[in-house]
Amino acid sequence: MNITVLLILTIGIFVGFYVQTVIGFAGSLMALPILLFAIKLPDAIAYISIFYLFSSIFLIRKEYKNIDKKIILKLATASIIGILAIILVLTFSNPIVLKKALGIFILFYVGYVLFSKKKVILNNGGIISFGVMAGFFSGVFSSGGPLHAICIENSVKNIKVFRATMIGISGIVSLTRVPALAVSGILNFSHLKMALFVFPFFFLHNF
């Protein structure tokens, strides 16, 4: 076992899912840049997907009553389409191109948060389109949360409902992404074995 890889994986997962627990999204945007110091992009996505699944199960149990089920159903179908399509990209694309695309996506979102003075207003068609794009980025980078957040902002005003609904859509996306990654061969048993060593530190973010 590579101790350096294990250490970076542990730090990345802890930091990412601490943020995920606090605000309901953006865990992968925090974890991925850390993991990529030592781990290839497809492997990083596999690890993040494993922990997203367990995090979502835990948080959905706590927040279920606050989840807006109507917007979840609207986003779920669109997001799942995006996830299934993008698994092919992860399987056959050049990792360098994908890393550059991730960097552009992160810069775009940071720019939107820092400099955009107006909230994006979406109609039903826009929400579905953003949902598909969110599924795309959830599949390729595990980072569709910011796009889901833009969609949910258009329908949810209460901050507790917003956070709970973000957790809910993250759970649905994870339930789709993990089997899809496993079937494609991107996620395998070696990822699960390494993840076992990280789980004690992963659970610390809940305390």
Describe the structure.
The chain is mostly helical and 207 residues long. It contains nine helices and no strands. The protein has helices at 3-23, 27-35, 41-63, 69-92, 95-115, 124-141, 145-153, 159-184, 189-204. α2 runs antiparallel to α3 (41-63) and α3 (41-63) packs across α8.
Number of helices: 9
Give the SSE order as H and E letters: HHHHHHHHH
What's the total count of β strands? 0
Shape: globular
Uncertain regions: pLDDT < 50 for 5+ in a row?
none
Give the key terms.
0% strand; 207 residues; globular
Summed up, what is this model?
This protein is mainly α and 207 residues long. 81% of the residues lie in helices and 0% in strands.
Q: Can you lay out the helices and strands and say which pair or pack?
A:
Layout: H1 3-23, H2 27-35, H3 41-63, H4 69-92, H5 95-115, H6 124-141, H7 145-153, H8 159-184, H9 189-204
